[in-house]
Design brief:
Elements: H1 4-30, H2 36-42, E1 45-58, E2 63-75, E3 91-97, E4 112-119, E5 132-134, E6 139-140, H3 143-154
Length: about 170
């Protein structure tokens, strides 16, 4: 048999693995997120941008809209008409922040994110005319995230990596 020190280290590692697995399942169950490929496919517009201003706060539904400075369109630039563009063409209005159906949906002024969007349907009312709506969770700007989203937009398969949070296709 192994030494007591080795047994203790093995038990600690096993306990730590069980704790991580339990936390992972709890997190996933509390707010399930679609695969990145599906999120990109369902969004007509994908862009990177920085939140300039938070407006149209609805205290009843705890939702709000933001004016976002666009840095780069990854998908759907042609869909964004001149009526949607604000302040000389480099900003858009995005609604749907605070939507409980979207996991990561909260921002603060100055936050830079990858946004998965669709044009607001007419059914949401005139107050959201010419607004884009969040389609799924925001993503932080990292080189890895940018590369993954670009690969999805281009239809290339993502690399499989066991350490990644976003489920990847092999």
């Amino acid at each position: 048999m192994g030494s007591p020190r080795r047994l203790r280290a093995g038990r600690t590692a096993l306990l730590l693995a069980a704790l991580v697995a339990a936390l992972w399942q709890r997190c996933a169950a509390s707010c399930p997120e679609k695969d990145l490929e599906d999120r990109e496919e369902e969004a007509n517009i994908v862009l990177t941008g920085t939140v300039d201003e938070i407006i149209n706060m609805d205290p009843v539904h705890n939702t709000y809209s933001c004016k976002v400075r666009v840095w780069r369109y990854l998908k759907g630039k042609a869909i964004v008409s001149s009526e949607i563009l604000l302040d000389g063409g480099n900003k858009v209005m995005i609604g749907g922040f605070g939507n409980p159906g979207i996991c990561d949906n909260q921002v603060a002024t100055g936050d830079t994110r990858i946004f998965f969007l669709n044009p607001a349907p007419e059914s949401v009312g005139p107050e959201h005319k010419n607004e884009l709506l969040l389609n799924s969770s925001l993503m932080r700007i990292t080189l890895r995230n940018l590369e993954d989203v670009e690969h999805c937009v281009e239809g290339k398969p993502l690399l499989c990596c066991p350490c990644c949070i976003v489920k990847r296709a092999e």
